[in-house]
What we know:
Structural class: alpha/beta
Distance between the termini: 23 Å
Shape: globular
Number of strands: 13
Helix content: 25-40%
Low-confidence stretches: 1-48
Order of helices and strands: HEHHHEHHEHHEHHEEHHHHEEEHEHEEEH
Bound molecules: beta-D-fucopyranose
Strand order of the largest sheet: 1-2-3-4-5-7-10-11
Amino acid sequence: xxxxxxxxxxxxxxxxxxxxxxxxxxxxxxxxxxxxxxxxxxxxxxxxxxxxxxxxxxxxxxxxxxxxxxxxxxxxxxxxxxxxxxxxxxxxxxxxxxxxxxxxxxxxxxxxxxxxxxxxxxxxxxxxxxxxxxxxxxxxxxxxxxxxxxxxxxxxxxxxxxxxxxxxxxxxxxxxxxxxxxxxxxxxxxxxxxxxxxxxxxxxxxxxxxxxxxxxxxxxxxxxxxxxxxxxxxxxxxxxxxxxxxxxxxxxxxxxxxxxxxxxxxxxxxxxxxxxxxxxxxxxxxxxxxxxxxxxxxxxxxxxxxxxxxxxxxxxxxxxxxxxxxxxxxxxxxxxxxxxxxxxxxxxxxxxxxxxxxxxxxxxxxxxxxxxxxxxxxxxxxxxxxxxxxxxxxxxxxxxxxxxxxxxxxxxxxxxxxxxxxxxxxxxxxxxxxxxxxxxxxxxxxxxxxxxxxxxxxxxxxxxxxxxxxxxxxxxxxxxxxxxxxxxxxxxxxxxxx
Length: 498
Ligand code: FCB
């Protein structure tokens, strides 16, 4: 397969069709059950890494979760209600009528969960801090008891040699702020910055990396646009555009607050799920069209954050509904970041180059296009190549993290109690090979966070959709590493897909 040369001669031939090293002997009956028995323990190789698929030295492997999805304990230690607590109680909002009330009970079982991370050999952990634990009303008096949970978690991680990466907002807006207007209200961005600064002041002695807001595109478009996420609103175009603006403003203000209140050397960046246009096939014209489309399709989010301006096409498309802002806002939104986090699952559109404006033609997916267990998770592992590559080409950040990647699977323990999630492993193996392709071309990807460590509350899908490396029996809270946990342990040990 052809790909254009990029980063002076670093093109690696045929990487997309290269066979993956299969783990030798894994499928041999008895040895196999021993392999995944109890914990994902002892037998991992590490010495068998396929040299040509090895990631750069120092590449960092971890897992990711978020507060509302795993913690439970929603009324413990003075936590205030969030918009997800409210949303889950509205009939028909969550597919199985569930909520994050208990979930995986990580709030009480975090030590066991950190031990699971350690057994994987994970070097990093991305978790989120629940704003309503720290400020139950969103602002005002800090709830020291709530923040103390993250103190304990961070200490436990560090004691186990795992570096904490904290996300400040993973969608659990304090309900008290939603009652004042939520992201439609400009002051929510200021409140967020105050909260971010307070957390950085307290945890900044041990947490060196902060993600600001997780997936602005998701929580704004789904929560305020089509209403399938909390707070369940369907705003008209002008109010929606203003809410988007407040989210990116919150990002910029929080970058500044963390720099002001955290220790010197604290690193900060977003974790955005950009829409990634893919070239229908790899010739320079389509590749260029895909890059152009990616810039345009993210105009309200990553593009304005990286460039400090909304694209002309975005503003023209909105006309009178365009957001109200001034030059100062744009400068804040584009506050320099230390890294760009990319959550990458499914591709955006495939495109062809086009003579006609806007320079690309968006293609519709045929009905037969494959997807993973979640229908939204259409399968295109090459998105792990194109996402960081487009970002590197468009905005030249010094560091990129894949802040989330993973897949749902219809996981069910077998008669022997094990979960053989071969589809998840297929997905991950191919995604990692494509990510590797990016690193060989010099795209500065520094680490990868697999979503997720544990099965958890998957928003509007409830608990039926499982994304974990570790199966959670919600009735007993028993954790059982799936086969993919053994796979990921091997990936980490080899620093290469397994
Ligand atoms: C991402 C979210 C994360 C999880 C995964 C499956 O969009 O950030 O919380 O739901 O999808």
